[in-house]
């Protein structure tokens, strides 16, 4: 029996292998979440420096990308060895501390690895051994990365949102999740929906209520799930955003002038809609009598 036949006939093996893959990818996503914004900031600074003084020679810097330099402890600069970087397991064995200086390691690293692994396993369980699983894995990993970067920096990088949009259209050119027509208009309506809200809010208040990255992310979600899922995504993400925002202000005393990222709520709503969007939409229509 070859590997394809084995994975097709054994859902448990498929889910287990996908879980392990998700844990490994989650470890890499931790690197992307930290390094990509730094890389973008460095690039912007270099562009500004060149624009302000084209004749000035840029200072040479050590390479800094997703692969170089090797990961180190931020406290003692101890290079993290391969056996110290096994997803979740290394954190538990090290008791959440650096092996060199004993500085506590942030709990967010194993949490992201665990969430990535579980959501990856969910995709394998839901779709089975199919092209949809591969596509949803990329979809899920992208949304996890965008969520954490937006939480940290109020930023949704084009280098992730735009390929995500194109991949949604390409996937649905083969009708993996919806028709190509629905995906095309989903991307158009997704972008225009938040674009209209942005300009309406700005004209009324003179302030910017959200960033352009939110437009692109909703456009990408529309490209994946079609225009008919957009109302549920917008409704759910808005409701959760309002509840969380009010809770942060009333319970934790958060300054209401500090912006709250909207990307995580869009991403959460997008994931829910990917699995249960049609069911939730039908339930909503039934309850409201529409």
Please give the structural blueprint.
Layout: H1 3-9, H2 11-52, H3 89-93, H4 108-127, H5 131-153, H6 158-172, H7 180-205, H8 212-225, H9 230-251, H10 263-288
Helix pairs in contact: 1-2, 2-4, 2-5, 4-5, 5-6, 5-10, 6-7, 6-8, 7-8, 8-10, 9-10
How would you describe this structure to a colleague?
By secondary structure, the chain is an all-alpha fold. Helix 2 packs across helix 5 and helix 9 packs across helix 10. The protein is globular. The protein starts with a helix and ends with a helix.
The parts where pLDDT drops under 50 for at least 5 residues are: none
Query: Helical segment tally?
Result: 10
**Integer-rounded radius of gyration:** 21 Å
Strand content: under 5%
The total of beta strands comes to 0
Distance between the termini: 51 Å
For the largest beta-sheet, the strand count, sense and barrel status come to: none
Report mean pLDDT, rounded to a whole number.
Answer: 89
**What is the chain-wise order of helices and strands?**
HHHHHHHHHH
The helicity comes to 55-70%
What kind of oligomer do you see?
single chain
